[in-house]
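new request in #modeling-help
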Amino acid sequence: MKFQAQRGTEDVLPAQAGKWRHVESAWLELTLLYGYGEIRTPTFEDTQLFIRTSGETSDIVSKEMYTFRDQGDRSITLKPEGTAPAMRAVVEHSLCPPGTVLRLAYVTPFFRYGRPQKGRLREAHQLGLELVGANSANADAEVLEVVSRFFAKIGIPDSVILLNSIGRTECRERYRAAILEHIAPWLAEQTTEDQEKAHKNPMRLLDSKDEKVHAVLAGLAPVTDFLEDDSKQRFETIQALLTEAGVKYRLAPEIVRGLDYYTETVFEVQSDKLGAQSSLCGGGRYDNLIGEIGGAATPSVGVGIGVERVLLALEAYEVAIQDSKPVAFVVSAGQDAAARNLVRELRDAGIATDWDIESRSMKSQMRQADKSGARFALVIGDTEVQESAVQVKELAKSEQFLLPRAEVVKWLQERA
RNA sequence: GCGGGUAUAGCUCAGGGGUUAGAGCGCCUGACUGUGGCUCAGGAGGCCGUGGGUUCGAGACCCAUUAUCCGCCCCA
């Protein structure tokens, strides 16, 4: 019986793991700089948590969740996104009492059932951040600033944030009605299925890839024309703050997002290098979510960044990420015990060291030293043992000299 | 969930109804018995994704299945 990783899941192999560490630690370091504390939430939650927050009619809830009954007959769902679990924890542990502001960051797997494609897995990973309890435009702007700085930090050039505001509930009601009115003649000729879909959530038509839909929507006023005064005010302030912070953004009326919990600010970062799964990052403001799950009304903003997609983008932009290499490779010329002791001493001293545990030929060991990328080969044989010394060879330069055994650690520490 | 493409060595791929299935790269060994990269020589490694079928004969053709890729849907 031969097994393979489940459909839509991936092994991250040692050759790739360095890139993952690079991206994840960049995120945690950056958010720490902005005062975000890390939170880790469980992999599965009560199914109702996601139904209540993402919305029963959202695609994620209606057809993409990994939901099952456990042996205690509870309905369990593997988290399909990071925000709802984090907010559940905030409410459960009273992390953000009224009047306070809370900053949370995380790296988490998430699960969505669908046909896998490049950049779309069933188990994927997300870098996330939530700014909880903050109502001011400063909050929206800060989240966007972190996103922008993050992409710059890891080396993805010229990322532009696509920004929109979809207003609050009342505004959206009016806009939905306006859309339906605008498309009514066209919609009447569509299939029942398309009609139902359009009525369920008219705004999703805006980010359709179908040219015909675009044509039908031509002439429709943008949602921002329907914003209440204070929403409009916030939207403008955010833009001013982004300009002040040097964050590149573009107004994008077609960005509407697929989760029901968003209010007012929504945004995405896309890349044309990723094919159909072009969204690297998405987020927005969710002022009603915490109230929806039993907490006091708490305005909040957050973002999720797809790790796999960021890695694809890094690859597409040919951003070089150096793998960690050993400093020293110890070569034994028939002196395995002495070599082993040297290796152990170096490792104990914190110097990354490798050697050939299979006692192969000298030639083979030198080849391995070369391939390992180590800066120095340390050769230890009969003569060296006799003289209490080690041959140190700087591989790139092919230069070699005899160094007293007692000085090896110190010598390498000065060069590591 | 819908439509289409692909599956041959560790990797990238060629081949094509007929005896022992190939290349490049990678890997291992060796080329004055203590020294890597370059070169040269040798070698290991594949039931041609899996299961059925057609055929005298299938890695090739057909069906199913699994995985993957592209598009849709959706989003990270």
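bot summary: The first strand of chain A starts at residue 37 and ends at 38.
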